[in-house]
Write a structure and sequence with these properties.
CATH topology: Rossmann fold
Largest sheet: 8 strands, mixed
Shape: globular
Number of helices: 10
CATH superfamily: Thiamin diphosphate (ThDP)-binding fold, Pyr/PP domains
Radius of gyration: 17 Å
Structural class: alpha/beta
CATH class: Alpha Beta
Strand content: 15-25%
CATH architecture: 3-Layer(aba) Sandwich
Strand order of the largest sheet: 2-1-3-4-6-5-7-8
Number of strands: 8
Length: 250
């Protein structure tokens, strides 16, 4: 019988701990598939976060290191400078990257560090119980915003891709999602392009994935995907925000 689809060799056989409907598993697979297709899976090093993806080093079948909360860009910077021939990736969530790690990601991008960041934006702190994150939408409820985020009190959400795109250091920034098959295909293309540009030594690359957190949102997996399309994406529009190889940007 012909094999139609099989697990990529860049993922281990360890069972994922993610909740049903969480998109982390999809994005893990895309990262792993791209590395294998590029023949870089044995040349890659990932810096993984504190957050839901804290055990990503167990799932990726290539070198990975757990980092202090928010410090993956600093860790990756050190790795890349010592091993410039390696393909170095940070894999981070919004609580890790957009809150405690804001300065780390901004300055890594400003310096044009030749690393690639895959940023999972699900609008909430996932692992620690559903607190409001810097990306939580206006009106969106969280354990620390029972009545919903009030911009007058809590401020407005931070659009990370747009913010980083104002800097000179980044070579490529794109926001994608994985709530439909077509979006999954585009997300894979974006991740591959980010890694290819890193290999060319052109600068910092960043792929933001607008994602789900069914458990903390209090939604079914299907309803969570609908929420991404109906609420998250209108606030966080998909597209290329910077691409020095094509002169593109919003």
């Amino acid at each position: 019988m012909a094999v139609i689809f099989q697990k990529t060799k860049a993922l281990t056989d360890v069972k994922l701990h993610y909740c049903p409907g969480c998109a982390h598993g999809i994005v893990h697979r895309l990262v792993a598939e791209v590395l294998v297709e590029m023949d870089e899976d044995k040349n890659a090093i990932a810096a993984v976060p504190v957050g839901c993806a804290v055990f990503a080093n167990k799932y990726f079948n290539f070198d990975a290191i757990q980092c202090a909360h928010g410090r993956a860009p600093a860790t990756a910077t050190g790795i890349k400078r010592v091993h410039p021939d390696k393909l170095v990736i940070t894999y981070q969530g919004d609580g890790d990257l957009a809150s405690i790690g804001t300065a780390e990601i901004v300055h890594a991008a400003a310096r044009g560090e030749k690393i690639s960041t895959v940023f999972i934006n699900n609008g909430i702190y996932g692992m620690t119980g559903g607190q409001m994150a810097p990306t939580t939408l206006p009106g969106m409820k969280a354990t620390t915003a029972k009545a919903g985020r009030d911009p007058k009190i809590n401020g407005n959400p931070i659009r990370i891709s747009e913010m980083l795109a104002t800097l000179d250091g980044p070579a490529y920034i794109e926001r994608v999602s994985v709530s439909t098959p077509a979006q999954v295909t585009q997300a894979k293309k974006a991740i591959k392009k980010a890694f290819e540009i890193q290999k060319q030594g052109l600068g910092f690359t960043f792929v933001e994935v607008v994602s789900t957190c069914p458990t903390n949102w209090g939604l079914t997996p299907v309803k969570a995907m609908e929420f991404v399309r109906e609420k998250m994406i209108p606030y966080y529009p998909l597209g290329v925000y910077k691409d020095i190889t094509a002169g593109e940007g919003k």
